[in-house]
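Our working data are protein records whose layout never changes between entries. Instead of coordinates, the fold is spelled out as a row of discrete tokens. Here is such a record, shown just as it appears in the course material:
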Amino acid sequence: MLLVAISRRVVLLVGHGAAASDTPRALVQRLKALEGQRRAQRTPISDEERELDEKVRSWPRSDTTDPYRAGVLKLADRLRARVGDVFIAFNEFCAPTVEAAFAEAVSFGAREIVLVPTMMTPGGVHSEVEIPEIIEELRAAYPDIRIFYAWPFDLDDVAGLLERASARAASTE
């Protein structure tokens, strides 16, 4: 999906990501095993892990085989209507990567990029560890781009969202 940045500030919506339902389970299991070993041993990513990651992320998808991705795309459309330019990335299993989406935003003229994860609560390794690590790498690679991380979310705001959702659900019966 190509977007032309109208403003100099864009939002990079970062979803968790999921493997397509028809991705061979053995590929995903091997990828997770290699990732676990790398993290435990604190070693660089291996060629095998990099190759498997690319294969899983680039697996063909549809709304049926990857409803999570479809949901993030719908959320991005709603967010785009409110804030303007929105690029999409996924933390794992799905393309584009945060790095690739970031580079795309820069190539379209973004000078300020706000990364917004879809993970809402504290305690998760993606939002607390992995995305901040990627942001530090991006800051080093793109020193002229202002990078913001819209996390952690205010838990009162999240509670308000969930309160409204529960009231809406209860009122439909």
Q: What stands out?
A: The mean pLDDT is 94. The radius of gyration is 17 Å. The chain is about 50% helix and 15% strand.
